[in-house]
Design a protein that fits this description.
Blueprint: H1 2-21, H2 31-40, H3 53-66, H4 70-97, H5 100-112, H6 114-119, H7 126-145, H8 150-165, H9 173-182, H10 187-209, H11 226-230, H12 235-253, H13 257-270, H14 272-291, H15 302-316, H16 334-346, H17 349-357, H18 364-368, H19 378-383, H20 393-408, H21 413-417
Helix pairs in contact: 1-4, 1-5, 2-3, 2-20, 3-4, 4-5, 4-7, 4-15, 5-15, 7-8, 7-15, 8-10, 9-14, 12-14, 13-14, 13-15
């Protein structure tokens, strides 16, 4: 019972943090496109790589049930999912380690990690997606640690559902298959899990092809050729990507990166089966995210970051690191680390130049501080006909459509600028 009270407590702490820091105006990137789809209120009927079928339809459902507008319905789902995921990290680590302080610390470290915190503050699909992925991991670990066979089936259900949120989760299929291999003697539950997952996965293709879309539509998009571009990079770009991925890791987990690495080593020594399940998922997600040819590839690391946060908790729980218990409160200083990093970079010439170049969407604030209150808005930028020093037409086209839609509902330009 105590662990559930702690999970609820953590949920409300991060619900408050994420809500207070949440965006003031619709941010740049894909945000306005998501709000536009929700504002139209038309349930998504196809599941392609960019429609995010379950996410959009969940926002519309919340909007219809509560009477909230598309922006607030999106905020509710994102902030709620973010806080719930932090609680799931706590429950999962507690299930592995049985150690309260390590579980709470791991939850705070993940909740404050830059990539996750940022995505809990904007209109994006990733916190909702990470919630379903966290349920998948939780179910697998329950199957290992408590031998609760129903969780074998639950793992297949949660992974299958997650594909309806974001097709990137196909990268977790190798981990799922390794997991089922280790439970192959539990035929009823293993086959049930595989069958359920297969039906959920196959339903994506059935839904799309029944509406005349190509068979490949669930994992392709007509909005870009990112996969093809990934294989066109030169060798130096791949090297740069690799080192950049380490920079992301350090910025997300700071000094706790050490405990994540040690947790991996300790898991290998103590539970090889669980280790190889998570290794399969980690390698696929990390490899894809590192080299994927999109400018904001940091978001694709989130399933890996979730695994790494669990590893941090496992590392902290090791008897030889018990001394860290007395100073585990340093995880509460992670936000201060972002502020210091921001000040240091901003004091440099290159930092100032970068800030000026990206000023149209918030400069260094946008890239180095996870909270988004009082942010630059895409609607105001578009209405004022401002120019960006880089191509952002794919953003402004959605913004223009959203602006016209809101005008048709009686909003003035000055009112829309504040959205």
């Amino acid at each position: 019972m105590r662990k559930y009270l702690s999970a609820i407590f953590l949920f409300f702490i991060f619900l408050t943090i994420y809500y207070i820091g949440s965006f003031t105006k619709i941010p740049f990137a894909d945000c306005v496109g998501f709000v536009l789809d929700a504002e139209k209120g038309k349930f998504m009927t196809v599941a392609t790589a960019t429609t995010h079928f379950l996410y959009i339809n969940t926002v519309i459902l919340i909007k219809n049930l509560t009477g909230l507008n598309a922006i607030e319905a999106s905020r509710f789902l994102i902030v709620f999912s973010g806080a719930a995921t932090v609680s799931m990290v706590y429950l999962t680590v507690k299930n592995i380690t049985k150690t309260e302080w390590a579980s709470v610390t791991a939850a705070f470290v993940f909740g404050f990690s830059f990539s996750f915190w940022r995505n809990a503050e904007i209109v994006e699909v990733y916190t909702y997606n990470t919630l379903w992925v966290s349920l998948f991991f939780f179910s697998m670990i329950k199957s290992f640690t408590e031998n609760k066979k129903n969780y074998i089936t639950a793992a297949g259900i949660f992974l299958g559902i997650s594909l309806w949120v974001h097709i990137q989760n196909i990268l977790l299929i190798p981990a799922f298959l390794v997991f089922l291999f280790y439970f192959r003697n539990e035929k009823k539950y293993a086959y049930g899990s595989l069958l359920t997952f297969t039906l959920l996965f196959a339903s994506l293709f059935i839904l799309n092809t029944s509406q005349g879309l190509a068979f490949s539509s669930p994992y392709t998009s007509d909005q870009g050729n990112w996969v093809e571009e990934t294989f066109k990079k030169n060798s130096m770009q791949y090297v740069k990507d690799f080192f950049q991925s380490f920079a992301y890791l350090i910025y997300n987990f700071n000094v706790f990166t050490f405990f994540g690495v040690m947790g991996t080593v300790l898991l290998y020594k103590s539970n090889r089966k669980m280790f190889f399940v998570f290794l399969a998922g980690s390698l696929c997600v990390y490899g894809f995210s590192t080299f994927y040819a999109v400018s904001d590839n940091y978001v694709f690391f989130l399933p890996f970051n979730l695994i790494f946060a669990l590893s941090i908790g496992y590392g902290l729980s090791a008897p030889k690191y018990i001394y860290f218990k007395k100073i585990s409160w340093v995880c509460l200083l992670i936000p201060v680390g972002y502020l210091l990093s921001y000040q240091i970079v901003f004091a440099t010439k290159k930092g100032k130049e970068f800030h000026a170049f990206k000023q149209y969407k918030g400069g260094l604030n946008y890239y180095m501080l996870p909270w988004m209150n009082d942010n630059a808005g895409i609607l105001e930028f578009t209405i004022d006909k401002k120019e960006a020093p880089e191509p952002i037409k794919w953003m402004t086209l959605s913004a223009i459509e959203y602006i016209e839609l809101m005008k048709s509902k009686g909003y003035t330009e000055e009112e829309i600028k504040k959205l």
